[in-house]
Amino acid sequence: MGAVPDRPGDPWDRRVAAGLAFLRKRLSGDYEVDEFGFDPELTGTVLHPILRRLYRDWFRTEVTGMENVPVDGAGLVVGNHSGTVALDALVLSAVLHDRHPASRYLRLLGADLVFRIPVVSELARKSGGTVACNADAERLLGTGELVGVFPEGFKGIGKLYADRYRLQRFGRGGFVSAALRTGTPIVPVAIVGAEETYPMLADIKPLARLLKLPYFPVTPTFPWLGPLGMVPLPSKWLIEFCPPIPTAHLTDAADDPLVVFNLADQVRETIQQTVHQLLERRPDPFGP
After folding, report:
1. How far is the C-alpha of 176 from the C-alpha of 10, rounded, in Å?
2. Cα-Cα-Cα-Cα dihedral of 71, 95, 85, 221, to 10°?
3. Where are the beta strands (DSSP E) in 151-218?
4. CB of 92 closer than 8 Å to CB of 106
């Protein structure tokens, strides 16, 4: 009887072996984080695979314009915010890493509230996030990182479904000042699909104030279905990265309110117009 030829190991064997190796390194402390707490190994091994399933299979995400994201060096990615729960930020981070030719990580800037919630705060830090302030943004951009910001903040993700795809005010344009001071190109990105994941029909403001939350959403499934109401609806997502807006020639105008306002308005208008174009390409929110 002939010898059995060597065959590659079963995919599940390789996954188990990789999982055990990962756990061994975590338990031994044999991994690195940067000064902000970013843990690229945990992000790439645990967090992004979960998000990959979500954006590929559940949201059927289509991505265009990735060539507009810098291959190396600093870049400020500015997106529209929506959807009651900030899945758009997480999905954008995973999509950019997966589809970018250099597999770049997006360092997200988040609201203070995110970093006051136990567990959520730790995960945000581990995945590369930090507080949305100019000082942190400029430090990251100064070291050549890709930084992601959603200037609408809670006004964007907390708006009613009736106001879907209407961009809210961009605040004071702090993200523009950070880009100007570091001469970093701004890459607007339009996201369509997040509005339908948790359509907010009402906001129970007294309950939000009691719980010290920016809003308390009522959606078609939440709070009626309890924990099941947190399952996002399978909307079709389109993400488009727009051509970068250079700022290197405006570094001396970082403190000029008029320049900052005009540039912020240009970014907002670019995203809004691109959102309208994407909506025309996607007539059915839950289509294939």
Report:
1. 50
2. 160
3. 186-192, 202-203, 217-218
4. yes
CA distances, 26 to each of 48, 119, 154 (Å): 17, 17, 34
Cis peptide before 223 (omega within 30 of 0): yes
Distance CA 246, CA 176 (A): 11
CA 159 vs. chain centroid, Å, equals: 18
Q: Is 137 helix (H, G, I), strand (E, B) or coil?
A: helix
32 with 43: CB under 8 angstroms?
no
Kind and range of the H or E run holding 76: strand 75-79
Per-residue pLDDT of the chain (288 residues; tens, 9 = 90+): 444 454 555 666 665 555 555 566 665 555 678 888 899 988 988 999 999 999 999 999 999 999 999 999 999 999 999 999 999 999 999 999 999 999 999 999 998 888 988 888 999 999 999 998 899 999 999 999 999 999 999 999 999 999 999 999 887 778 999 999 999 999 999 999 999 999 999 999 999 999 999 999 999 999 999 889 999 999 999 999 999 999 999 888 888 999 999 999 999 999 999 999 999 999 999 988
Six token digits for residue 181:
């001071």
The whole-angstrom separation of Cα 177 and Cα 141 is: 12
